[in-house]
Amino acid sequence: MNRRHFLKNSSLLGFATLLTQFPVWGKSVFAWENPIHNIPENKGINPAWIKSLYLKGDKIAYRKSKDELKYIGMPIGGLHTGTVYIGGDGKLWLWQVFNDSYDGMNEGVENKVIQWHNWKEMVKVRPRDGAAYVEPPLAKDLQKFTQGFQIQVLDGKKIQLKDLDAALWDEVIFEPTYPSCKITYTSQDFPVDVTLTAFTPYIPLDVENSSLPLSCFHLDVVNKTNKSLDIQLIGYLENGVHHGRTDFGQVKKVAQLHEKKDGAKLIQFSCKDVPEEFQLAGDHGTMGITCEDANAIYHVNYKLKDLFNKKANDENISAVDFQESQIGAIQISKKLAPKKSTAARFAIAWHFNHPHPKLKAKIKDAKDGYWYGTKFKDAAAVLAYYLENKTKLTSETLDWVDTWNDSSLPYWFLDRTFLNIGTLATANTMRFATGRFWGWEGIGACAGTCTHVWQYGQSMGRIFPELERNLRETTDLGVGFKPDTGAIIFRAEYESRPAIDGQAGVILRFYRDHQMSKDDAFLKRNWSNLKKAIQFVLDQDKNGDGMTDTPMENTLDAVWEGEIAWIVGLCLAAVQAGAKMAEEVADAEFQKICENYVLKGAKHMDEELFNGEYYIHRPNKDFGRKKLGSYNTCHIDQVYGQAWTHQLNLPRINDKKKTLSALQALWKYNFTNDVGPYIKTHLNGRPYALAGDGGMVMNTNPKNEDKPYGENVTWQLGYFHECMSGFEHQVAAHMIAEGMLDEGLILTRKIHDRYHGSKRNPFNEIECSDHYARAMASYGSFINACGFTYHGPQKSIGFDPKINPEEFRAAFTAAEGWGTFSQRLNLKEGPMADIFMRYGTLTLKRLSLGDGFASHQNRSLTVSLNGHPLETSKKGGSDNKKTMEFAEEIILRKGDRLIISYS
């Protein structure tokens, strides 16, 4: 493409702008078919800014005054119950609960195709290609039906009314602490301030109580004046059942008051006289609203107007024509003394138990609806369960929020590494009536809980390990398993082939999920088939050098030929995990096979696939680079197998010095503070990062080789020029584990900044569609920041903090409980650590601490539980760790504290 043609057709740049941005014309800039590498080695980052990344800092806060609220959409429903967002001003939006998402038909959070200029031409961008990154959906455009809260204040004879709507307040501040948020509303001329705390019941390790189609709202009102005030608080919700249909003639909308035996009340919405052909439709179901105030007044057909003159309505049911709006409301009256506060508690539920018909046709587990549908017959039943169990649901959810945020780690880091687990609370995942867990890659895109995508995620296995074990047994070693070969089909019912990286990833996840179990029952009952899956990986080494060389599908949607470092390393890590599991089930023969394979393969990988600076892809020996591959370029996943070993406390598979060199090469050649210059010259990538954004590019050609990706490149080459956050997160986690703390934090922060509320929805990391599963790799950075290791069946736990270890505190989860670990290394009397349980139990036989404790080997160690000394035996440490065995197995329960100190 010559420059005259470019100037004529460019819709974004004028000639003067081009001259400014591109002072050098010709091949070095505009030869898109063979562009030069143009990522600067000197990143030019201010050292003071890097230092600030380690500080606790301020809580994340998005403000109306800074125009930071319009894109915010935090998932506010239970696991696999559809997507309900809470916006920056507290209003619910999106309402993707009607089961209409499906591959190629209704993808993403907004099924909209946009136009984007890729620096060569205008192209169409679908939801699966990143449309919501370029043009983020606006909350005000997708609220769908009326919902919210009002407050009226009677001050003498003056009545003042405000809806909790950003437009009506001087300032609105949204503070996220997923799974909760706090929204503060203030106006100088309004006599009260309001705080809304919203969440869904969300309790790590408790899948059932974290899977309610329910949102909770706690309103707190403060009287700013020196006078008593009469106030009215109202929560309201429109009947959204079958919302948006235009083909309903005789259908009636129904709002009905339900009164329970214990006096609790709620309003349920439904539709009656629905034609039979629509009674199994995805939008056929119920919704409801309730509150915890026994004196509240319920209105089944409410008009938004003056509350002080509105009396209790004798009606307990309302039926209106389908075309009419029907709003139910709950009204609470309060007397508020000067400078005092009062509270009100509401909840909203939904129940739409009919999966998309194409899912039901393809997946037999989907035929009878969802898991929550087996627990509750309608929204009223969901609300009734909440009202009966609200103390437990609320306290344990908010205990987790407090535990997670009671940390020495920076607020921004806590936010970014955890919030991606919100993917489980969107339309991206489902749990069918049979109990089977299932997910897209991104909402409505790429079916089958794809093994080579989901294997990157680290959060579900740590927060809800039951779901990962479910996935291993019902899908990976269930409907997707080929027992004759040991192959795991990478999309279960939606495919017929295995993917080599997905296969290895399942094995590694199996070991993690075993470690996150209370005993070895999960491993033992699956060992026979799991062993076949491991053998399948061993069988893909055709030349016997310990390096996988069988051409097979991988996560970049292509079949690569040759010996590929990232696939070789991933398979070696999987076989290493296989050796450990074989040891635990006393399969000594297979353990030895695996260990020998790893020794051979690791040696050859380090010797033959390391080019002196980084790990590469060695071409097929028979026909070289004829097909697409990464070859001698710098690939983001090149030491991904080694990264997995840090998540699972496995022995190294790659030489540490070479691994560091590879990570440094990724930093040098693939990371940039501004991807703009790169994507202007390296085309066909999807817009997951734009000019001005920092990030790590998937694959670069730093040596400027001719035809670096092979002689017959295909459309998948576009992937190489993208920034996909899931891959970036795994690299950042690995950097933290290997001691490259600055680089790991910078990369994580650049992703965090790409998703700042002023630019797009902070809660939606996008790859192939919205809420992409791979982004749950972010939790791996938290694991490595803590230096956390755990093995439930062996009753072993360990901590070796990497970030600010001198004064460290962070949450942890184990098989049956969670709590807080903290340590202080600079005390005069010597280092001290403690484990405080906040939920469940923790059974221990072994505890390992980092080098801050190992350096005091000659001092007397004291371990006590709730002030009572425990007998321990010293055990030899490795990798500068201090490990101790307890004379007897101990069990920590909620409220227990284990203290380790030197006297």
Question: Could you characterize the architecture of this molecule?
Answer:
Residues 73-392 form the Glycosyl-hydrolase family 116 N-terminal domain. It holds the Pfam family DUF608. The structure is a single chain. This protein has 903 residues and is an alpha+beta fold. Among the domains are: 74-107 and 145-398, Distorted Sandwich (Beta-galactosidase, Chain A, domain 5), CATH 2.70.98; 789-902, Maltose phosphorylase, domain 3, CATH 2.60.420. 27% of the residues lie in helices and 25% in strands. The chain contains 23 helices and 42 strands. A ten-stranded antiparallel sheet has the order 1-9-10-11-12-20-16-15-14-18, with helices on one face. A hairpin with a 7-residue loop joins strand 36 (817-824) and strand 37. Helix 9 (411-418) packs across helix 21 (741-754) and helix 20 runs antiparallel to helix 21 (741-754). The longest helix is centred in the middle third of the chain and has 27 residues, at 379-405. The chain is globular. The protein starts with a helix and ends with a strand. 53% of the residues are buried. Mean pLDDT is 93; it is low at 1-31.
In short:
The chain is α+β, with helices and mostly antiparallel strands. Helix content is 27%, strand content 25%.
CATH fold-level topology of the domain at 74-107 and 145-398: Beta-galactosidase, Chain A, domain 5
Second CATH tier, the architecture of the domain at 74-107 and 145-398: Distorted Sandwich
Instruction: Report the uncertain regions.
Output: 1-31
* Overall mean confidence score, pLDDT: 93
Strands, total number: 42
Give the % helix.
25-40%
Q: What is the radius of gyration? A: 28 Å
**Alpha carbon gap, first and last residue:** 74 Å
Gross geometry: globular
CATH class descriptor of the domain at 74-107 and 145-398: Mainly Beta
Largest sheet data = 10 strands, antiparallel
